[in-house]
Amino acid sequence: MSGDRGEIIEQVLRLFRQRGGSEYGGEAVTQQEHALQSAHFARQAGASQALVAAALLHDIGHLLHDLPDDAPAQGVDDRHEALGAAWLSRWFIPEVAEPVRLHVAAKRYLCAAEPAYFQQLSQPSRLSLELQGGPMSTGELEQFRASPHFSAAVLLRRWDEAAKVPGMLVAGIDEYSPDLQAVLALRRCAS
Question: What is the rounded CA–CA span in Å between residue 89 and residue 84?
Fold first, then answer.
């Protein structure tokens, strides 16, 4: 891909246009609705542009693979967090890619550190939690807390879980282009 900034943003938007209407893992919203709601909650919380972008793009790995929408129900962990973070790190700053990489770990963390958090999980999220390793062990908790992106990942995870509201009215995908432009990694975008 060319390093042109507009082309990179267009590729992201094209992914949502082409695949964002797919089911979001057994939830009552589409991939795009989930992404837009997550970004909406991040903006409402006054998050940085990088964290708003991470909230918007946290599940982009689902749009990059060819597994069926019901892969978790078939016992498959699609590792979308790793796929998405690897793809994003080619063009975006670490403050975008790292919370994306860690948002599944943040779910595992919250289920261990705040047992009541598990009760907030939707049924599909509980199923994927099992495939993703379940709540963290004590050692994993300590290691996760040491990550420089720990706090951002936990915030992102909370917005992620909340972003499953059928019919919620939020800004459209194009409204986030300035946020995405602002957090492109300049070193990767030089012509």
Answer: 8
Residue 156 carries which side chain, given as an amino acid letter?
Answer: L
Domain membership of residue 9 as a residue range: 5-189
Domain count, the chain: 1
Which residue type sits at 90? Answer: R
The tens-digit pLDDT sequence of the chain (191 residues) is 345 778 889 999 999 999 888 877 778 899 999 999 999 999 999 999 999 999 999 999 988 877 656 656 666 556 788 999 999 999 999 999 999 999 999 999 999 999 899 999 988 889 889 889 999 999 999 999 999 999 999 999 999 999 999 999 999 999 999 999 999 986 444 33
Instruction: Check which CATH number belongs to the domain holding 72 and give it.
Output: 1.10.3210.10
DSSP conformation letters of 75-105: T----HHHHHHHHHTTTB-HHHHHHHHHHHH
pTM above 0.85, yes or no: yes
Which helix (H) or strand (E) segment is 120 a member of?
Answer: helix 115-120
DSSP string, 16-31: HHHHTTSB-TTSSSBH
What's the token pair of residue 43? 């903006």
